[in-house]
Amino acid sequence: MPDRFGHRKVNTLVIGAGRSGTTTICNILEQHPEVCYSVVKEVYYFSIPDLFRRGEGYLHSFFGDCSDRRVIATADTYLLIDYGAIRRIHAYNPEMKIIVMVRNPVERAYSSYLYSVNNGHHEPYPQFTDSMEAEAAIAEEPDVVKRNNLGHFYAGLYCRHLDQWLKVFDRSRLLILPTAWLKEDPGRTVSELFGFLDLPAADIDMKWLNKHAIPRSRTLEKILINRESLFRRTVRNMIPAFIKNRIIRSHLAEWVFSMNRKAAPVPELSDEERRKAEWYFREDMHRLEQKYNVRGVWKMDET
Questions:
Q1: Is there a cis peptide before residue 264, judged by omega within 30 degrees of 0?
Q2: pLDDT tens for residues 102-141?
Q3: What's the pTM value of the predicted model, to 2 decimals?
Q4: Burial of 106 from C-beta contacts in 10 A (0-12 / 13-18 / 19+)
Q5: Rounded to whole angstroms, how far apart are CA atoms 140 and 129?
Q6: Which domains does the chain have, with CATH numbers?
Q7: d(Cα 99, Cα 29) in Å, to the nearest integer?
């Protein structure tokens, strides 16, 4: 359904979980000839109040001519844990199709922790599992960006978050994909994804993207990712909208971001920390399997 300016509604959202292979899924979507994907991977329209107040025109500005495409898609990995955004999305398009990636929650939490430490969101804890205590009240944090950057364990409580989405959207509107399928059975992943979106088969170049990396310059990284930095606020206030749109469409920011990162090995997680983290997620993972019939996300030693 078009808006009053003739734009068709976005009808597909990849909502997370962050650090779970969403970049790879978005790359698959971008390659399909029947998909009109946003000019940037993630558009934080529904999750950032300041952006939502700009209206649907702001969201639609990230898309070209989608008139001949079956699927109009973007991503926002803050959304899985943003309960306040759920009804905003439903009011915008009650027929929205929603894609959720569910990675082994221990691996996802550890990846999120390393990402936040490397990018200066918080100092390293004596142990990774100390985050459990540090984020004890994170669900009450009103800023979804902080909730995302500090809630490493919280964000991996998939069943808890999905329960909130199912209060508004019918189960048929959600596709839940285990991240492990991307490596173990990519053909199944693509088949499930395209089937859910009613898309015909297409030739896809499967690439595993967004591997673990660290910034070469933390200062530059903060400028790029912190919306409230002096540089970002100055750009927003001084540069005309049409120039900002050209910069966005040029992918300059993504290029600078990628050039500022270098591959790095993932530090080993101790057996003690892994066991402690597994028990944190144990109940939620059992509920995810039983309630949503999602298998293959993890294997836990029950002993």
A1: no
A2: 999 999 999 999 999 988 899 999 999 999 999 999 999 9
A3: 0.85
A4: buried
A5: 20
A6: 12-212+265-292 (3.40.50.300)
A7: 11
